[in-house]
Amino acid sequence: MSLRPFNFSAGPAALPEEVLRQVAGEMLDWQGSGMSVMEMSHRGAEFTSIATAAEADLRELLQVPANFRILFMQGGGLAENAIVPMNLSKGGKVDFVVSGSWSKKSAEEAKRYADAAVAASSSDSKFTTLPALSTWQLRRDAAYVHLCSNETIDGVEFHELPDLKALGCDAPLVIDCSSHQLSRSIDWSRVGLAFGGAQKNIGPAGLTLVFVREDLLGHAMSICPSAFDFKVVAEAKSMYNTPPTFGIYVAGLVFQWLKRFSYAGKTGVAAIEQRNIDKAQLLYAALDASAMFENRVAVDCRSRMNIPFYLSGKFNTETLTQAFLTGAKERQLLQLKGHKSVGGMRASIYNAMPLEGVQALVAYLKDFEAQYG
Amino acid sequence: MSLRPFNFSAGPAALPEEVLRQVAGEMLDWQGSGMSVMEMSHRGAEFTSIATAAEADLRELLQVPANFRILFMQGGGLAENAIVPMNLSKGGKVDFVVSGSWSKKSAEEAKRYADAAVAASSSDSKFTTLPALSTWQLRRDAAYVHLCSNETIDGVEFHELPDLKALGCDAPLVIDCSSHQLSRSIDWSRVGLAFGGAQKNIGPAGLTLVFVREDLLGHAMSICPSAFDFKVVAEAKSMYNTPPTFGIYVAGLVFQWLKRFSYAGKTGVAAIEQRNIDKAQLLYAALDASAMFENRVAVDCRSRMNIPFYLSGKFNTETLTQAFLTGAKERQLLQLKGHKSVGGMRASIYNAMPLEGVQALVAYLKDFEAQYG
């Protein structure tokens, strides 16, 4: 393996080097077929085998129950903000837990199709906390409850999904898990539908994954485009329209990589989850110990994936922020600029980020503080 | 260049070999950035430069007027069947010219959103002709008129777009040009909106191109998802949601390839159009001269891109069809099986198919006829 820079992009994001090498090696001839995967009919034997294996591997990795369908779709999380209410709301009530920028957008978009209400919000804390369960005002007849299980911009993560039944709510839980899917296991008993763009932990942008419980299929509003009707897509095995074939292929290689992955005596998702915990702890510990940098999120809901941080107090100047980013690039630590809506810096440390990448960032934080602090 | 098989897939389809080689070569490090294009933030300087160049090159190649916006979207032609009426119909009347399987599907889907009527159809000829202009029953107050300018399954192509004004109709013309876009020039004075999936002449599946006249922006129905509202997408320069970045990159390389392309003393689209004419004439001439094979489409509307053909008369058996396809594969002539809805064979000879590929197919047709005829 060569020494590649460490890429902290929030998405599209770093991919495992061995996956990229395999993609490059197979670019002109996939396994003796004489074709690039990009050149294959999506209905041919070659691509069918690729898509079937990808779905089976993903199902195995996340232990997706048999009564869930896995759909390969297009449009990303933002399109799902419309597609989900068109499929599940029946034009009725839907409740949103707003814990950051993305869930806020989801609630806004759903108003086009449903009586969308905010059941709880942590906007008062500027999204540095999660809304306490005791404050959730769920409507008994809601068609579903939506939350974003990891807020990419705000760096807030649900480390345990709520048990809606225990809150007296029988509605299915919908989670937007774009930026942490496949980084940890999922408790499917608490979920009705999960969706996410692939461009964080899974593959190239343009592929969207939807996990949907079978009883939620078949309720789409008449205005739902056929190409986005979960039942139509499920019955066509994600081939109603031509799927993003190359994205599915890359995702499939990432799934194979993750199945081989081992760490701390574990394999697969358990292994990557442990490494993600270790990476996040290392970085948060360095930020908390620093007099110059800070992360502002409450300790119990800090994201393992997206860690926004800022120069603190008197150090929080545009000049020092720029100096930090310039110096980072010189050290081959890429794409650390914070989201434009919040500024500062952000380290996205998805599955493909090795421990060494976080160690290199922590070393730079210390050196920077020694120089400018 | 190595000797690759000739790939006649209807889509996803063959790409220029030198594009695939460049993609492979840049897979781990795009131009010294230390990142694969798949790993870049869509808002960073690197990817912005890729997307900007791709759009500019496409605009130059097709001489797209300044009052048209070019949008990079997702969902393919089938999604556009819903997205276009949501954006343009205002829930009113829309007229469809049905000349094959795809326009038929488009008309059906539009009924979800509009008073969609069939203004003309060539179903009586089993889609081997185009509906004569004199039969088109256009409604004066239609929001738009839709046609599919190249029917991929039926192999029927409009070689001249209709002048709706001359037919007494002021409505904009919408064309689904998925399977022949960039294979020839377009008369933009006759078009209001053109859309197409990329996976024929342009790049990987999952990228959809939309060319829309600016006065048609801003009329979306309230139920149109934000991610598919042409005005929202245009104002965000195709970055409202994360676009299919890798697909845009590959498309951009195809545009650069086409700008370099020369043939018969011409360059760019004029050159590829001339080669497409020559390739199609060669194959149709061989089919017409054969006593064993036939193409059933009327001469004046035969597609230059998709050429369905069948064993004729007594030769039209499942056994011989299978023998033909097996023999083709042995000669490295791939993906010649006809669409499942019509059977037989189909040669899709998009921009990336060299003249030599068609010559090899014609030689095989003759050899097969000599052996079995």
UniProtKB/TrEMBL annotation, chains A, B:
InterPro entries: Aminotrans_V_dom, Aminotrans_V_PyrdxlP_BS, Pser_aminoTfrase, PyrdxlP-dep_Trfase, PyrdxlP-dep_Trfase_major, PyrdxlP-dep_Trfase_small. It comes from the Bacteria. Its EC number is 2.6.1.52. Its main location: cytoplasm. Pyridoxal 5'-phosphate binds at residues 102, 152, 176, 199, 241-242. L-glutamate binds at residue 43. Binds 1 pyridoxal phosphate per subunit. Belongs to the class-V pyridoxal-phosphate-dependent aminotransferase family. SerC subfamily. Keywords: Amino-acid biosynthesis, Aminotransferase, Cytoplasm, Pyridoxal phosphate, Pyridoxine biosynthesis, Serine biosynthesis, Transferase. GO terms for molecular function: O-phospho-L-serine:2-oxoglutarate aminotransferase activity. The modification N6-(pyridoxal phosphate)lysine is found at residue 200. It catalyses: 4-(phosphooxy)-L-threonine + 2-oxoglutarate = (R)-3-hydroxy-2-oxo-4-phosphooxybutanoate + L-glutamate; O-phospho-L-serine + 2-oxoglutarate = 3-phosphooxypyruvate + L-glutamate. The keyword Hydrolase does not apply. Residues 6-361 form the Aminotransferase class V domain. It is an enzyme of class 2 (transferase). It comes from Roseateles albus. Pathway: Cofactor biosynthesis; pyridoxine 5'-phosphate biosynthesis; pyridoxine 5'-phosphate from D-erythrose 4-phosphate: step 3/5; Amino-acid biosynthesis; L-serine biosynthesis; L-serine from 3-phospho-D-glycerate: step 2/3. Its cofactor is pyridoxal 5'-phosphate. This is Phosphoserine aminotransferase. Catalyzes the reversible conversion of 3-phosphohydroxypyruvate to phosphoserine and of 3-hydroxy-2-oxo-4-phosphonooxybutanoate to phosphohydroxythreonine. It is found in: Cytoplasm.
